[in-house]
Amino acid sequence: MQQVKGVIARAKDAPVELVTINVPDPGPGEAVVTIQACGVCHTDLHYRQGGINDEFPFLLGHEAAGVVESVGEGVTEVAPGDFVVLNWRAVCGQCRACKRGDLQYCFATHNAKQRMTLEDGTELSPALGIGAFIEKTLVAAGQCTKVDPEARPAAAGLLGCGVMAGIGAAINTGALTRGRSAAVIGCGGVGVAAVAGAALAGASPIIAVDIDPAKLEAATKMGATHTVDSSRVDPVEEIKRICAETYEGAEGADVVIEAVGRPETWKQAFYARDLAGTVVLVGVPTPDMTVPDLPLIDVFGRGGALKSSWYGDCLPSRDFPMLIDLYRQGRLDLDAFVTEEIGIEDVEAAFEKMHHGDVLRSVVVL
Ligand code: APR
Ligand code: ZN
Ligand code: ZN
Asked: Which residues line ion ligand 2, judged by CB < 5 Å?
């Protein structure tokens, strides 16, 4: 056992605290990882606010990269000294999804059990089975994905959640390819990552939609070919117009990715898709939201697919090393997502900035 500093949310809506945490030695199938960097994700804020899950106290942080310090009995996936990005999809290999070969949909993930405690022995809930605003964390070995150690930790760690969710919505769920058009509604960290994914896939045009001009600028840097300020113009009409300019007869985008998580923007995505186009929902709705009232004939008549994308339908063992490789080659600018590097004591301030929406990602660097 060792004692380290980590950031917890002690109770619903209470400001986070930096406290001492007991990290046990890794047991069978576990690893202790020295955290080098961890991004501040909206989900951490949701945990701190309560509502989605009320197992306080939470150990926050789940978008991280670091070096394996030690491993428990029987661990073969990683060894001490390996540079890893942590994932919250440690596939079980046994559930129905895994058995039919769809490991990215595993619904019985073997993420870490709750074994870290406060100094007085109180059990902690690590966010998404990780808990990485901490000097060292205990995870399941399957949550460690080995990647090229030359990658900058602050950039690499972002693949652990938000950036992967966005890129994966484009390349995995939306299955974008060359010759297909894409529109992304909402260009925060997740939406801009979806734009980057669409660019990697060779999609064109790539239309970025947001109500904030600064976000549209960030989207252009990531590969958007067109931008639409939906506070000023009707985004559905604009998407249709731009796509028809490129592909004669197009009535919208082949893939429309919704990265806000609201019924209005979901409806825009729905009507901006081309005939037989795909709508991908990656923005997380709140539990009280329902599908907007739509004529069933509009669902039926246009054909296509309505999909939700959970963690970008990623398979960490396949997608993390691939994206790090593209980053190392200069084809994916992960550094551009890192708006600022902050200390572990600044998580609360980063949550504040998130409310104002002026950063893509604040990243805690240790
Ligand atoms: N139309 C278009 N864009 C909008 C609208 C709207 N009506 N309302 C908000 N936006 C934009 C914001 O301006 C912002 O750029 O959506 C973006 C949301 O981005 P962030 O708040 O930075 O959130 P992000 O981290 O990108 O996550 C987006 O995905 O994973 C989920 O929980 C996350 O639901 C959230 C979503
Ligand atoms: Zn499984
Ligand atoms: Zn997250």
From this structure: 92, 95, 98, 106, 108
